[in-house]
3-oxoacyl-[acyl-carrier-protein] reductase FabG
Amino acid sequence: MNRKIALITGASRGLGKNAALHLVAQGVDIIGTYNSRADEAQALVAEIESLGGRAAMLQLDVGQSEHFAAFAFEVAKVLRSQFDREHFDFLINNAGIGMHANFVDTTVEQFDLLVNIHFKGPFFLTQNLLPLLNDGGRIINVSSGLARFSLPGYGAYAAMKGAMEVLTRYQAKELGARNISVNILAPGAIETDFGGGTVRDNAEVNKMVAGNTALGRAGRPDDIGAAIALLVAPGSQWINGQRIEASGGMFL
């Protein structure tokens, strides 16, 4: 029986890497993308192979949608050459960047960068990859707790995530004929290097997050990797078109 295959954008580090390792433990093989750190990408391939899984890493800048058709062609080649498959099963739109800028200070350049990476990117990447996604597959988009609660300086970033939450419902509706379920996971504040590693490295910020979270701590990468693995597990097929927040109960 063929193992399932997940395509994860931004898989070489942070939450994408953690999700990949959780999925491998669940018997899923990985096609991942990286932007610039080929060394980190190949290190993840080696780690996955040491765990008994298979993996391939492809370079992709999710902010450059003009390259998506060529990327889909490369994915098709990798599926055939390394996995002896024509299709993959799970698409996880994870890649992104953090940016802090108050509304009155946000520049057109900053706004366009966020649009290209966090909304236009996953919109058109998913569109280009749909012919390679199995019927009955899953799409997991990634939002943020900041689309529900408001912290100054994240207005543009959160607005892109809000747009993805709306898009997720439309994707679920329109792809239902292919039995593809689409959900969006919204992490809370997580101890990673995202956004300069503030939650992880700044003790005061970490304390503030813990003090405003029902479970009394900031999130950890394993909290999100495990949630992504849960959303593609066999028992979650009937969850569809939903925003699922994994924040430990932040700002309830």
